[in-house]
Hints:
By secondary structure, the chain is an alpha/beta fold. It contains four helices and nine strands, in the order βββαβαββαβββα.
Amino acid sequence: xxxxxxxxxxxxxxxxxxxxxQIETVTDDAWRSLPRVQRVDLSGNRLSTLPRLLQLGxxxxxxxxxxxxxxxxxxxxxxxxxxxxSLGGALHQPTPCCVTxxxxxxxxxxxxxxxxxxxxxxxxxxxxxx
Length: 130
């Protein structure tokens, strides 16, 4: 499943677990159709971005897991770190940080939510530079 799209039953959903489902995109309509959801688990997917709608629409969750996604921290996504921090205790595995992982000559800046220790990040950078 590459996209998580809105479903009629989302309006009555209180817990959504689509972890490790290879999701690359959650549509705006899907986010909007989760008004009652208390727990959202999107961990271990392929999300590189989240819509600004989450911040602007003041969408909140009782618990949300986003770790294990390569969330971009490029300039247009600067708001994302603030939104993630604003979730406080609702964010499972909090403390987003921006790291740059190098593979060959390409550097990719991404948010990692405590899924890799500093040692693993340094090792990934060092091994890709060799």
